[in-house]
Amino acid sequence: MRWLEFPLRLTDKLTAWMLGLMLVAITLILFVNAMARYFAGIAIVGGEELARCLMVWMTFLGSYLLVRTQAHIAIDVLAIMLKPATRKILVMVICCLGILITAYFFVLGYELTVRIFSSGQRMSSVPLARGWFYLSIPVGMGLMCVAFLQTLLATITGLAQPKVSDFSLPEVEAAAVKAAPEGKL
């Protein structure tokens, strides 16, 4: 199980950096496009389409990190009322369902991506193959499948999972602790 930790931690850090860069790129693209349209009366061709493509990539890659840190929105009323042993079984069932669903969508996304790349479709205003847009599906679903598998193995063996705080900057975390009311963080 330890052999899986290093590549996953590396993937986590790389994904977190990519998400940050994508967010900055989307913000800059839309800001520059809005300013050019407002002040110069021109629109940057392809800016909105590129921002949309990056947003889709952010969604799928971000979902991977949310699975890794167990930060997806969850209805945990039932889980809180269960005994720890029963809660562990519930987590294992959820992980197995997650593995099956993400593996299924990985296969569908892969087939769709291959079909789109082989058809030679291009994006309407950006000189890129439309397959790059669809590639986010198998990449994100494959990463989520691996994350669910790792969570299942960690639940069985009792190993620790990464936390959301592992991906925040130390200064931001320290400021949040300082700004939070006593004992409320």
Automatic annotation (TrEMBL):
Keyword Transport recorded = yes
Keyword ATP-binding attached: no
Tell me which InterPro entries the record gives. Answer: DctQ, TRAP_DctQ
Residue stretches spanning the membrane: 21-45, 57-82, 89-112, 132-153
* Membrane topology value: Multi-pass membrane protein
Keywords carried by this UniProt record: Cell inner membrane, Cell membrane, Membrane, Transmembrane, Transmembrane helix, Transport
Q: How does it assemble?
A: The complex comprises the extracytoplasmic solute receptor protein and the two transmembrane proteins.
Q: Which family does it belong to?
A: Belongs to the TRAP transporter small permease family.
Name the UniProt record assigns to this protein: TRAP transporter small permease protein
**From what organism does this protein derive?**
Pelagibacterium nitratireducens
